[in-house]
Amino acid sequence: MAYTLGGSVSLTPAPSQVTLPGAYITDFNFLNQYLPDTYEKEFERYGNRSVSSFLRLVGAEMPCNSDLIKWSEQGRLHIKYEGVTLDDAVVAGNDSVLINITGHAIRKGQTIMVSDGTSGGSGLSFKGIVTATTTNTITVGLYNGSGLPAVSGLSGGDNTATDLDVFVYGSEFKKGSNGMEGALEAPADDKDNNPIIIKDKYSVSGSDMAQIGWVEVTTENGASGYLWYLKSEHETRLRFEDYLETSMIEAVPAESGSGAIAAGGDLGNKGSKGLFYAIEQDGNTTTGALATLADIDAVVARLDKQGAIEENVLFVNRALSFEIDDVLAAQNNFGSSGASFGLFDNDRDMALNLGFNSFRRGYDF
Are 340 and 334 in contact (CB under 8 A)? Predict the structure, then answer.
């Protein structure tokens, strides 16, 4: 009885480099035949991946150990109101005018300056002394003998069109008269914030801990050296430190009726007031491009109102940085058609600097 053998024929290595059919490998995987050469230094593909240290640089860090943080901020020392209107009955030539200011803190006997604060407005401007007050109005006796100036918007029936600024600059009383009526309390501007608990986790099996493999790394804080199985633990720690920082910058409080408040279990449901949220609520915000010198002047004017310090640091993205460079370059005589920001002797080894590190326009930036 005849029989046949099944299965594949084993490869037979050739004793010399001869292309024999029995020595041909049809499914060849290089890595299965030879050990690859390895480069032990880790390649930093994305550069510095960390975003930490921003809050430390701006001096906005403080320790706490409570579930609530409270602090108080100074209010304005002097009294000023914007967007107030003259009473409809006021007309040009009046020696005494009625001004509508809801819930004001101006007292009888104080001297005030009134002006139209709108751009291209009526130009109305006068000074006077407050002769009477109610909760929402003040009566002002003008110092000038000709009465209220005749300007646009004083039609005697449509005076709400005037957008006025009222500033208290002093007071005046007769000799031997009684003192000022009423008193002012420092405005209470108490604020609070909720700390949040941040968690992360790194796990490793015991068998993986026995496989020691060294990798040379450079960390985001500048340290370099070799790590083995704890490389992932190290990045988990860096990621956690970044979350600490980004949470303080991007966090927002949970609003009433929100899905975050309805979250149950171990999840937090309060949120927190991050840096950007605080700026949006109580700081100065702007939109659009910083494309002209007038835009920079508008920033300077706002800093004047806030009593800003002389030197300021700008944290900008690439687009805004280029906008500022373009504005500053345009101030040069050849900014639109050439480059002459400074002395340039056409040296072939000199690199042309098209950017600016700082500038001064009322303040140092």
Answer: yes
Please give the residue that has the higher pLDDT: either 6 or 256. Answer: 256
Whole-angstrom Cα distance, residue 264 to residue 243? 22
Residue 282 pLDDT? 84
**CB-based contacts of 337-340 (< 8 A; 24+ apart in sequence):** none
In this structure, of 40-44, 131-135, 145-149, 270-274, the range with the lowest mean pLDDT score is: 40-44
Distance CA 165, CA 334 (A): 42
Tell me what pLDDT residue 28 has. 47
What digits encode the pLDDT tens for the residues 205-243?
777 666 655 666 666 666 666 655 466 777 788 888 888
Strand spans (E) along the chain = 69-72, 80-86, 96-100, 110-116, 125-133, 137-142, 164-171, 190-193, 215-218, 224-227, 360-361, 363-364
State phi, psi for 158 to the nearest 5 degrees.
Answer: -145, 45
Tokens of 285: 């915000």
Could you tell me which residues are beta bridge partners of residue 113?
127, 167
Residue tagged 């009955």 (tokens): 89
- Where residue 36 falls (left for φ over 0; alpha for ψ -120 to 50; beta otherwise) is beta
Question: Are 251 and 274 within 8 A, CB to CB?
Answer: yes
Length of the chain: 365
What spatial distance separates the first Cα and last Cα of the chain, rounded to whole Å? 101
Tokens 């407050």: give the residue.
Answer: 130
Burial status of residue 325 (CB atoms within 10 A of its CB: 0-12, 13-18, 19 or more): middle
More confident residue, 12 or 85: 85
Mean pLDDT of 253-270: 83
Structural domains in the chain? 40-73+193-282 (no CATH), 80-171 (2.40.30), 284-364 (no CATH)
| DSSP annotation string for 124-142 | -EEEEEEEEE-SSEEEEEE
